Give the backbone structure.
Amino acid sequence: MVFFLSHIRDVFARSHSRSQEILLSRRAFFRLLGYLASCVLFSLIAQDHV
């Protein structure tokens, strides 16, 4: 499994420049934060209606 993940990482690294990797990583990080924040928000709204 670890070999598979490192192989996927190598393929990704070869297909993108370093600056593109940074931008994609940053975008993914902020999308994750947005998703987590929306989960928390919906959970709080659901608790208020109970």
Notes: Residues 1-49 form one domain. The chain has a mean pLDDT of 88. Helices lie at 2-15, 18-48. The chain has two helices and no strands.
